[in-house]
Amino acid sequence: MQVHKNYDGDYKKDCLEFERANGLENFVGFMTAADIEKVLSIAESGNVKAYITAGITNPAIAGDEPPRFLSKTINIALVIEEGLTLGAMANAIMTATEAKTYTLLNLGYNATGTTSDGIGVFAFEGEQEWAGTATRLGIDIGRAVRKALKESLKKWEKTKDSL
């Protein structure tokens, strides 16, 4: 859901209105002030597809006092075509976060993320128990996140002054 760059609204109310206006029911989504059409990037590796929108006007480092809040963020939606346990889903979040952090640092951003990043893992319930960096699934998560985030950030860099 795209919001204005100075958004400071009632997110619960606004999301419910968005859900109703779009005929959705019990949806899961993200809010962003990044121009979704301009920065959305999708990358696939194995059974993993990463959908990422990125904008970095509020970079942060975990454990440091955050800068003043601005409205750009990194949102990651992982769609995994495997049946995962709850533990594997948590593991997938960890692996995706590591890939995000590596990508940011590798591209020269002095940040581990932004102050308002979001991540969602969408998979069927199943028997796959692990999604860490030593597993095939973890490698695919890392590759998809790194590729999509790098592409999204390149798109954002080209358009950030016009947003």
From TrEMBL:
GO MF, one annotated term: hydrolase activity
InterPro entries noted in UniProt: AdoCbi_amidolase, CbiZ
Tree of life domain: Archaea
Stretch forming the signal peptide: none
Coiled coil (UniProt feature): none
Protein name: Adenosylcobinamide amidohydrolase
Organism of derivation: Thermococcus litoralis (strain ATCC 51850 / DSM 5473 / JCM 8560 / NS-C)
Organismal lineage: Archaea, Methanobacteriati, Methanobacteriota, Thermococci, Thermococcales
